[in-house]
Amino acid sequence: MKPTGIRLKTSAAMLSAAMLSPAFAEPVSFEPIHITASRTQTDLTELSRTIEFLSSADIEQQQAASIPELLRYSPNIDFVGGPRSSVQSVNIRGLGGDRVLQLVDGVRQNFVSGHRPSYFLEPELLKSVEVIRGPASSLWGSGAVGGVVSQNTKTASDLLAGRTFGGFIKQGWRSNDDRSVTTMALATQQEHIGVLVSGYYRDGNDIKLGNNDRLSGSSMRDKGVMSKFDWQLDDNQHLTLNVRSSRDEGNVPSNGAAPFNDTSNFLIRRRNDTDHVSLDYRLNPHSDLINSQLLAYWNQTEMQEYRLSDLRADKTRIQTLGMSLNNQSTWQTVRWLYGVDAYQDKLSSSREGDNRPTPPDATTTIWGVYSEVHLPFAERWQLELGGRYDHFRTRASNLGDSRSDDAFSPSAALVWNTTEQWTMILRYDEAFRAPTAEELYTTGTHFCITSTACNTFMPDASLKPEQAHNIELMTEFTDNDFWQQGDKLTFNAAIFRNHVDNFIEQQVDDPIFTSLPFPPFFSVDAGHTRYRNVDKARLTGGELGLNYQWAGYDIGLTYGRTRAENRKTGKSLSGIPTDKWVFKFAHTWAPTQLTAGLRLTHAEAQRRLPDNIDQQYDSYTVTDLYATWQPRQLDGLKLDLTVNNLTNRHYRMAFQAMHMQGRDVRLTASYAF
What we know:
Blueprint: E1 6-7, H1 12-19, E2 34-35, E3 42-43, E4 50-55, H2 56-62, H3 67-70, E5 77-80, E6 89-92, E7 95-96, E8 100-104, E9 107-108, E10 126-133, H4 137-140, E11 147-153, H5 156-160, E12 165-174, E13 179-190, E14 193-203, E15 221-232, E16 237-253, E17 267-287, E18 290-307, E19 313-331, E20 334-351, E21 357-358, E22 362-378, E23 381-396, E24 401-417, E25 422-433, H6 437-441, E26 443-448, E27 454-458, E28 466-480, E29 488-501, E30 504-508, E31 512-515, E32 522-525, E33 528-533, E34 537-550, E35 553-566, E36 580-589, E37 594-603, E38 620-629, E39 637-644, E40 664-672
Parallel strand pairs: 1-4, 8-11, 27-33
Antiparallel strand pairs: 2-3, 4-10, 5-6, 6-7, 8-9, 10-11, 12-13, 12-40, 13-14, 14-15, 15-16, 16-17, 17-18, 18-19, 19-20, 20-22, 21-26, 22-23, 23-24, 24-25, 25-28, 26-27, 28-29, 29-34, 30-33, 31-32, 34-35, 35-36, 36-37, 37-38, 38-39, 39-40
């Protein structure tokens, strides 16, 4: 007996393989999809969480400009930050930013600083993306309040398919910003050793919006390389060394999610360098008691910024050093996962000029232990119990202050396989997010109203960690040969209620103007800026998904809805995505290996607004087309075409400061050898 995971998106790679087979009438067969966001190589059908999975074929077909953009069709998952891909991030069920944990090959990505970007990986380097909807601190610790975005990079074996040498070269072009994208990779496999070397280069101009205006400060140039060394030590041991480096640079406003303004949102020259080294050791001696992973890693992100008007320079750098060790043991039908994590972030920054905010030079250390056990207790029932204890400590060296705290994050799930086709899951999760060093210790000036009246940051080392309590009910129905031989019908649904306490928000005092009887005839108290624990949020909603496949056709419909209110006041909260419908239709012609399809995305109007927002966010519908062709006569050649925003719709997503990108034709030609 295995519990069934909730899957709101079927892997396009498995679908394409099935539809390209000569006999469409045969039952659809799917290879297992292994999910790493569960901390082990767990089959997707054995998970009791709401998982979104994108395969390599999904990624290549979308030709997305960023990792967040890849997830735009997923219910209750939105990319936020506006049209500039360099500053986009992910919002899951109304929670975004550092409330969504980001992983690359199991390694935490901890760079969060002001209005700066946090997603740096080029989609072309990925073989899959996995998203956990809902809290997951019982597995991953701090930050997984809204969910987890796990990115898995390609390996030599992904390219070679049993050969000893190979690779690919890919050239792409995008019409909207005249951007070129070049990607290359070489791989070799000799006996027990595999090596992959890949790189990319992207260069584009300013983005064009739906009203045909150019968005100033949206051109970017970026490049990167990745090397992977895989060594199968023996039948039981495997070692992977991963080295990755990238550089992004361009002229953007200091707040890239807002329009350029030469009086407050200044244009800056930004250069971001990221470096990564990880060592992943696996031990699996074909024993039911031992299936282990040891992961050690080092990350560094350094962001340099120069204001173009006066060449004032800023620098922000974070270094992360960490390790994790876990093991999975199986005894008869009981499966037990347990492990330990530890990592340390070192944040340093410098700000030139007067009246500037001063982030701290700070060190944050977190360690945690966790465990999760799967207990079948009846023919069709299974109980899952998990928990994690974390201890975290932050010290600001320039202030001589420190604080420490701890948290316990339990989880529980009850799985009922009512029939072979239908599964129901009830689960409960708690999660937390520790305050960042910037939230605890930032000092200095936020902004100035006059030369002498400036709003200043007030540090508060007593901030409490954010805490989430989520209850969720999920169901899935999957049946082959539902209406006729060879078809497949999938229906899934989830409803949730997530209570999040001690929300950390930045609060800015309004300036106070006082009249004086003599020049300058007034005085100004610009007030202070503080990070505070404020809202007690209640987030409720759910997702629906329906998919039907038969004879080369793939038809699907998804819907996501989230509502959020302050439990103290009953008022709506900011930053909540609108209700979103996505309809997809695709067909594959097997003799020509051509696949074509469309996606219609309809977002309803957002009328549930906080009192301090008087804008309206109207509904919109966006049409996207795509086609993929692999000609049989030219082995290794592949052409991908997408047309995003076909009607050149001028629209703005809810709670975003800018309108989105207009029509964009993306064409990619790749050759694998």
